[in-house]
Design goal:
Blueprint: H1 3-20, H2 33-46, H3 49-61, H4 66-91
């Protein structure tokens, strides 16, 4: 990417970051509602819990497609184990 491209991306990043600034908690003040919502969503997404819930609801309300929803849940479980237990530890990224 060119210097101009980098500057554009950096400017866009600062602008979007500024839009979210009012949602951030102040150090020493403890987590606010936005912190709790996003932390919870992040944890749920980490193990595909939203997709598992959607699959379970699909299996419950569309019995004719239950085998597909079961396959989805099994595939999600395998993917979760591979990504969270085997791939992510390789990179050892610090999480905020």
């Amino acid at each position: 990417m060119t210097s101009v491209g980098n500057d554009l991306v950096a400017g866009f990043d600062r602008a979007v970051d500024g839009l979210f600034e009012p949602l951030r908690s102040t150090p020493g003040e403890g987590p606010n509602a936005a912190d709790r919502v996003f932390y919870t969503a992040s944890k749920a997404a980490e193990f595909s819990l939203c997709w598992h819930a959607a699959s379970a609801l699909g299996a419950l309300f569309v019995p004719s497609r239950r085998p597909e929803f079961v396959r989805l849940t099994v595939a999600l479980g395998i993917e979760s184990v591979l990504v969270n237990a085997m791939i992510k530890p390789i990179f050892k990224r610090d999480r905020p």
